[in-house]
Design goal:
By secondary structure, this protein is α/β, with parallel strands linked by helices. It has helices spanning about 15-25, 30-40, 45-55, 65-75, 80-100, 135-145, 150-160, 160-170, 180-200; strands at about 5-10, 30, 110, 125-130, 170-175. It folds into two domains: about 1-25 and about 105-200, P-loop containing nucleotide triphosphate hydrolases (Rossmann fold), CATH 3.40.50.300; about 35-105, 3-Layer(aba) Sandwich (Rossmann fold), CATH 3.40.50. The protein contains nine helices and five strands. Strands 2-3-1-4-5 form a five-stranded parallel beta sheet, with helices on both faces. The radius of gyration is 18 Å and the shape is globular.
């Protein structure tokens, strides 16, 4: 059994910066967001199921998924979100497991913004939360994505509350300073994970 670290954090917490740091240490990363896009790519069974369930309007002229139209539809129809998740979640989970098992680095990382919400933490040996206060999250996300503060607040409100994530995580890195401070914290955890991967 390979040691698998589940890495998560809210919008603007520094999850991406942490993930990139681990990659520079030669640790293989499986990104749940990328997998979620891959399973609904053209020609994938999940895309065909989505088309059969919702109709041809979910496809663009080139046969790719019309994400915007589908997003608007599930926003208006809560039952449609469940239907969509019943199609995509098993496909995402199967692909994540396959990619984690194929990893050849000392340990592997599953990075997912919804690690706890979707039960993906069950696929991991240990979890790490990259944490930041809400003010910082809003400030960083606004700078990075050019999003409106209200939109960012809505995203934060839709995610699992910070305190709940803190209770569920095995390790917490508070990312409220410069990147060097983040990297120093990750560096000591990385050594622990390497040691644990040897006994896993």
């Amino acid at each position: 059994m390979t040691f698998i670290l589940g890495l998560t954090g809210g919008i603007g917490s520094g999850k991406s910066a942490a993930t990139q740091w681990f990659e520079t240490q030669g640790i293989q990363v499986v990104d749940a967001d990328i997998v979620a896009r891959e399973v609904v790519a053209g020609g994938q069974p999940a895309l065909q199921q989505i088309q059969q369930t919702f109709g041809d309007w979910v496809l663009l002229a080139n046969g790719e998924l019309d994400r915007r139209a589908l997003r608007e539809h599930i926003f208006k129809e809560p039952a449609a979100r469940q239907q969509l998740e019943q199609i995509t979640h098993p496909a995402i989970r199967a692909s994540i497991i396959q990619q984690l098992q194929a990893a050849t680095s000392p340990y592997a990382i599953l990075v997912s913004p919804l690690l706890f919400e979707t039960g993906q933490h069950e696929l991991t040996s240990h979890t790490l939360l990259i944490d930041a206060n809400e003010e910082l999250q809003i400030q960083r996300a606004a700078q990075r994505d050019d999003q409106q503060t209200e939109q960012i607040k809505q995203i934060i409100a839709a995610q699992m509350p910070r305190l709940q994530k803190q209770r569920m995580a095995n390790d917490i890195v508070l990312n409220d300073g410069p990147l060097e401070q983040l990297y120093a914290q990750l560096s000591s955890l990385h050594l622990q994970y390497l040691a644990r991967s040897e006994t896993a």
